[in-house]
């Protein structure tokens, strides 16, 4: 009986498959998309930019894929992630200043269709694994109501990798499987396990259970290599044993090595489950490395939180056997966080122009190793700190870039660079010729016209600024009111 029943079911499934063969085929021909977000990974926190780092899987991806040398994100986490998912400049959403903090009702604008929401409409199964940090006090701000079928990870931006106690105190680890109240669950079982392993394993689990009639979009948003400096002992003391003097750098090396091992596990699973041929993978960091916490951005200047190149220009690798037929190559075209939304939509086969966003579709230039459609971008305009910077072609105009403003981890064999103690009102650098931002060209006579034009442009952008939003502190959100955990649903009107 049972056998007959299951035979009948198999027959039915086959029938259904056949009757929608045409539709199914056109759906499954869409690329599967895996985004691997590293957190706070510095330019030289990978092996291919610093040979003391141990990241063989990321290095391999860069060697085999499209290694982007001029790809930018924003200066810090929440603005960067918001820009990536909305395709809009943070300064046009009031999100330009800093990161989201717990107990505040901060969020991305709820009236913008996010990249995953758009992909769901194209038939994608969508999953978010890892650190969100984009608002959660109302359920409508959480990943499962912002375009992701499931969410496994942390709502907040910082916490222990093992205990998952947030920087703001309280347990922060979740497995949300839908939009209904019962779908929101605190994942107590994560307590004690390093988040890099949890996020890699969950991604593999999702792949194993994926119904291949749909394409997938997975955002694997690692907590690594953000502080606190925590990594499994093996990676620190064995893999990174060669780093002996600087203990912060040593632990950072261990964190990056552990993340790389997780990426290796995910890559193996993609291979063995047959996903590798129809896949697009993007590896990118959300911002530059924090140099006070053992990150190196050398030869780039500055740190996370600043608008120097070290805070904003990031390791970015796109890899696809099928969709990037000419890989490997280094692509020097200009790319910004806001461009990924339209670019990935095009990769997913969406041919219409997306309105209301600032990003440009660079898919064709990337695939063809051609000229970027982006010719200028705003690094940021911050109305609280008064920092701002604009790029037009090779030139970068800065009013104030912020601190730390030095060059971290300078090799012993270069002339030591020191930042000045005072700055003029404006700085100008030729980034093509001087990516380390050592030589201020603001007084160069032959560039007077260029400078005037750039100042005018920056002013025009500034006119579009939405003032930094201020948020109320809402004590109802305190974990002590919710069994010791950060949960959603305490600021609903
Ligand atoms: C990737 O490009 C960077 C420059 O942007 C370069 O330093 C690095 O060597 C390249 N990596 C590989 C693996 O080609
Ligand atoms: C946050 O709360 C304040 C007052 O409680 C309200 O004015 C504001 O609109 C809320 N912000 C968001 C994004 O919901
Ligand atoms: C996590 O596990 C440890 C060890 O069992 C325990 O002491 C701690 O209370 C747990 N944390 C939470 C938030 O339950
Ligand atoms: C996969 O999805 C198709 C289409 O929605 C459905 O008919 C089929 O039953 C699913 N397969 C499994 C194993 O869930
Ligand atoms: C790893 O190295 C740290 C720092 O040197 C040390 O405190 C720790 O005991 C080492 N762990 C093991 C298992 O050797
Ligand atoms: C990678 O997979 C191996 C084998 O299953 C496992 O022991 C290890 O913990 C995994 N590493 C990470 C970082 O997920
Ligand atoms: C990619 O374009 C660059 C710049 O135009 C060129 O130097 C390089 O040879 C090209 N590489 C490939 C593989 O097409
Ligand atoms: C998008 O345009 C390309 C090239 O013109 C075409 O091959 C593809 O079928 C179009 N995709 C959709 C979904 O219309
Ligand atoms: C920013 O500029 C305004 C107006 O010039 C000034 O009042 C304010 O003090 C400045 N803030 C900082 C942090 O420099
Ligand atoms: C400094 O040394 C590194 C190797 O340690 C080498 O790759 C680099 O080219 C050297 N730079 C200069 C300016 O000599």
TrEMBL record:
<feature type="signal peptide">
    <location>
        <begin position="1"/>
        <end position="26"/>
    </location>
</feature>
<keyword id="KW-0378">Hydrolase</keyword>
<feature type="domain" description="Sulfatase N-terminal">
    <location>
        <begin position="31"/>
        <end position="350"/>
    </location>
</feature>
<dbReference type="Pfam" id="PF00884">
    <property type="entry name" value="Sulfatase"/>
</dbReference>
<comment type="similarity">
    <text>Belongs to the sulfatase family.</text>
</comment>
<keyword id="KW-0106">Calcium</keyword>
<dbReference type="GO" id="GO:0046872">
    <property type="term" value="F:metal ion binding"/>
</dbReference>
<dbReference type="InterPro" id="IPR000917">
    <property type="entry name" value="Sulfatase_N"/>
</dbReference>
<keyword id="KW-0732">Signal</keyword>
<dbReference type="InterPro" id="IPR047115">
    <property type="entry name" value="ARSB"/>
</dbReference>
<keyword id="KW-0325">Glycoprotein</keyword>
<dbReference type="InterPro" id="IPR017850">
    <property type="entry name" value="Alkaline_phosphatase_core_sf"/>
</dbReference>
<dbReference type="InterPro" id="IPR024607">
    <property type="entry name" value="Sulfatase_CS"/>
</dbReference>
<protein>
    <recommendedName>
        <fullName>Sulfatase N-terminal domain-containing protein</fullName>
    </recommendedName>
</protein>
<keyword id="KW-0479">Metal-binding</keyword>
<dbReference type="GO" id="GO:0008484">
    <property type="term" value="F:sulfuric ester hydrolase activity"/>
</dbReference>
């Amino acid at each position: 009986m049972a056998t007959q029943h299951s035979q009948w079911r198999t027959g039915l499934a086959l029938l259904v498959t056949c009757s929608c063969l045409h539709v199914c085929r056109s759906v499954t021909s869409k690329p599967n998309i895996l985004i691997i977000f590293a957190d706070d990974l510095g330019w030289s926190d990978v092996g291919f930019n610093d040979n003391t780092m141990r990241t063989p899987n990321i290095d391999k991806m860069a060697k085999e894929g499209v290694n982007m040398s001029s790809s930018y994100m924003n200066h810090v986490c929440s603005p960067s992630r918001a820009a990536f998912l909305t395709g809009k400049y943070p300064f046009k959403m009031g999100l330009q200043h800093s990161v989201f903090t717990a107990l505040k009702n901060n969020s991305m604008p709820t009236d913008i269709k996010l990249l995953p929401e758009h992909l769901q409409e194209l038939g994608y199964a969508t999953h978010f694994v890892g650190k969100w940090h984009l608002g959660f006090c109302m359920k409508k701000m959480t990943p499962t109501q912002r375009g992701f079928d499931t969410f496994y990870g942390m709502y907040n931006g910082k916490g222990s990798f093992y205990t998952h106690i947030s920087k703001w105190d309280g347990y922060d680890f979740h497995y949300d499987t839908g939009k209904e109240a019962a779908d929101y669950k605190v994942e107590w079982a994560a307590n004690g396990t390093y988040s890099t392993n949890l996020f890699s394993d969950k991604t593999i689990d999702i792949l194993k259970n994926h119904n291949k009639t749909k394409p997938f979009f997975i955002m694997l948003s690692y907590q690594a290599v953000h502080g606190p400096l925590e990594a499994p002992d093996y990676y620190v003391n064995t893999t990174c044993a060669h780093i002996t003097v600087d203990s912060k750098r040593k632990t950072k090396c261990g964190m990056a090595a552990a993340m790389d091992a997780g990426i290796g596990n995910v890559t193996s699973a993609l291979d063995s489950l047959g996903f590798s041929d129809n896949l697009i993978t993007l590896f990118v960091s959300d911002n530059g490395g924090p140099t006070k916490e053992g990150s190196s951005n050398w030869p780039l200047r500055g740190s996370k939180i600043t608008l120097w190149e070290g805070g904003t220009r990031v390791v970015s690798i796109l890899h696809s056997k099928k969709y990037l037929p000419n890989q490997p190559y280094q692509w020097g075209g200009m790319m910004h966080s806001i461009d990924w939304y339209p670019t990935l939509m095009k990769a997913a086969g969406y041919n219409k122009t997306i309105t209301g966003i600032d990003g440009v579709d660079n898919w064709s230039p990337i695939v063809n190793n051609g000229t970027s459609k982006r010719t200028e971008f705003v690094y940021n305009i911050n109305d609280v700190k008064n920092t701002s910077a604009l790029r037009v072609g090779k030139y970068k105009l800065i009013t104030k870039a912020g601190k730390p403003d030095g060059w971290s981890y300078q090799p012993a064999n270069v002339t030591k660079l020191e930042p000045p103690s005072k700055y003029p009102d404006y700085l100008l650098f030729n980034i093509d010729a001087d990516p380390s931002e050592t030589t201020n060209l603001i007084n160069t006579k032959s560039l007077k016209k260029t400078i005037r034009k750039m100042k005018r442009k920056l002013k025009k952008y500034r006119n579009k600024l939405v003032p930094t939003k201020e948020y109320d502190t809402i004590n109802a959100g305190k974990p002590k009111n919710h069994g010791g955990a950060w949960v959603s649903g305490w600021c609903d009107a």
